[in-house]
Amino acid sequence: MGLKLNLLARALGVAVLLSSALGADSAGFGVSGAILKAEALPGEEIRHQMVVTVAEEGSPLELAAEVVGFGQALDGGPFRLEPEDDACPHSAREFLRASPERFHIEPGSSEGLLLEGEIPSDVGAGGRYALVEIRTLPVGDGPLGIAFAVYVPIYLTISGTELVEAGEITALEVEEGPSGGLVASLTFKNTGNHHYRLRAGAVLRDEGGTILAAGEAPLEEASIIPTASRLFEIRLDGAGDLSKGAFLEARVTSEDGRALDEDEVALSGGLP
Amino acid sequence: MNQKSSITSSALGILFLLALLLATSPSGGQAPGQLCGSATVWDEEPDFIRITAPADVEGWTLAPGVVNLRSGTLKVDASAPWRATAKDADLRTSGRLTKYDDGTGTYDTGVKLNSPLVISASSEGGDEVTLSPVGQEIISGVATPEGGRDVRIEFKQLVGWNDLGLESGSSYRLVVTFAGSLTG
Hints:
The complex is a heterodimer.
Chain A: H1 2-12, H2 14-21, E1 26-32, E2 36-40, E3 45-53, E4 61-72, E5 78-81, E6 96-99, E7 102-105, E8 110-118, E9 127-136, E10 144-158, E11 167-176, E12 182-190, E13 198-206, E14 211-217, E15 229-238, E16 246-254, E17 259-267
Parallel strand pairs in A: 2-10
Antiparallel strand pairs in A: 1-3, 3-8, 4-5, 4-7, 4-9, 6-8, 9-10, 11-12, 12-15, 13-14, 13-16, 14-15, 16-17
Chain B: E1 4-6, H1 11-24, E2 35-36, E3 40-42, E4 48-54, E5 66-78, E6 82-87, E7 98-101, E8 106-112, E9 118-120, E10 128-130, E11 136-141, E12 149-159, E13 170-182
Antiparallel strand pairs in B: 1-3, 4-5, 5-12, 6-11, 6-13, 7-8, 7-13, 9-10, 9-12
């Protein structure tokens, strides 16, 4: 195909260059209703309408939609969890479904996509989570085929149940940053039963308690879901002599400023 | 982000719902973002994300002994903070260009380039990632301005002198999946 196109390009010359410059060969799609945060009662039926659209200048697409487990990477990014890895009690995958499961969209057209299900009457407390994965078959037959996906995060809070927003710092260390300076590396795990947003800060003190350096990570855009961990890398502004020993203190707080956990490590004899 | 409210709580809400039904409902159903069954509706503009990229990377002739480069534009249009990732979900290729029979459309998984494909959005403040079956963030951002945001991406492929040249009828191939999501 690539060779054929090269020959075609020679034959058509400027015309092909112009169409390439105009970027006529693009593909992809859009989704409205691309996130759901809702409260629901045990036994309640829920429906969430999404609309998938291909732009006029796009390519026709074959798509598939599926409710999958909600995995969350250390940076907060969502990823598909396979069923065997989605045994978490906070999963909503088993009681939600998306339809249609497969569909075709021509450029300039849209297709409705419905998420529906019934919250089990014995669902338990806290939040329930899933992703709707909307993906295309590959387009193009050159050396790099391109496929597209949109993940629609589903956050359901079970009304009238006890919401536990708790967590703990599971790792804390400090190291030299790639461009100099110090960076505190902090891993925090959601041990509660509900999602929440969080921020983190760290302070480096000498043995006398004097602050040598400090830093703060801004409020995270992505809520952390139960059992997930989040990695913060916090640049510490300031300087000081660590050779006589120091303490690194870290603190993670919720969006409303409530302390979720604090931790401290001793740095004896400077950086490890 | 969306707020839940009663469908009967405001006349404006009803008017907006009617407008949405008339303007955007593709199958005569609900407006996007609607949660029904509990007699509730989202009375704001629904959240959306759109992701587009070059439909194909054609005619990429790979030269040995150098890092081969191709560039393209990833376009993201989003109503809220978003992130875009890249992965090669096909375990037959797993991020490495693999011999592909152009006639039968099948991979020969025994013949791959030694170096994986690298995708970079670093010129736009994003990341450079080595393609793998796990989605890795290449760029993220806040809600885009109207019309979306163009992100220049580069495909980088190192070809060594010990990589196998292919005869006519076969080529190296893999499929890159770009994924977008709103963060909440």
